[in-house]
Amino acid sequence: MNQLGIVLVVSVSIFKDEEVLIIKENKPTAINKWNFPSGRMEYGEDILEAARREVKEETGLDVKLTSSTGVYNFYSSTNNQVILFHFIAEQSGGSIKLEEDEIVECKWVKPGDLLNYELRELHVLEQIINNIKQKKFLPISLFNAMIERVNFK
C-alpha cells in the first residue's frame, strides 16, 4: 500500500433530545454515505476551532463542544493516514442549512440506530458509536489544556 500523507480530521456528534445528527455526503470519496459532520483541519487552526467550523459549514449549526470520544488513527479509502479527533456537542445556535454541494441530507437518529445506515469509514465509526453508546467520553478540558500548551509564547 502506498501511503499518500497524514491528514488531521475533526468529527462532531451533535446531540438533541437523545438523538444525534448524521449527514449524507455527496463527496467523490463518499457518495451517499452517512457520517457525522466532519472535515480536515486548516493550516493554523486549532482542533476545537476546526470542529466548530466544520459543523457550521456543513450544517449551518453553531455548537458547544462538551466532550470527546477520543482520537482515532486509520487509513482512508484514498490511502491517507487519518488522525481523527471526534467530539460530542450540543447545538448553541443557528439552524439547519446544508452545504449544498457536498451534503444532500441530514437526520436526527438514536445512537442505537446508527449502524442501520450505510456509514463512511465503517470500521472507525463503529468504534465511535460504541463509545457513544457506552458514554465513554473524555473531558473537553483535555483539549483546551493541549491547545494552551501548543500556543504558548
Automatic annotation (TrEMBL):
Q: Which SUPFAM superfamilies does the UniProt record give?
A: Nudix
Q: Taking every annotated instance into account, which residue ranges of this chain make up the domain Nudix hydrolase?
A: 5-130
- Asked if the record carries the keyword Hydrolase, the reply is yes
Which is an annotated Pfam family here?
NUDIX
What InterPro entries does the entry give? Answer: Nudix_hydrolase, NUDIX_hydrolase-like_dom_sf, NUDIX_hydrolase_CS, NUDIX_hydrolase_dom
* Keyword vocabulary terms for this entry: Hydrolase
Q: What family, per the record? A: Belongs to the Nudix hydrolase family.
Keyword Phosphoprotein assigned: no
Query: Protein name, please?
Result: 8-oxo-dGTP pyrophosphatase MutT (NUDIX family)
Where does this protein come from, organism-wise?
Answer: Cytobacillus purgationiresistens
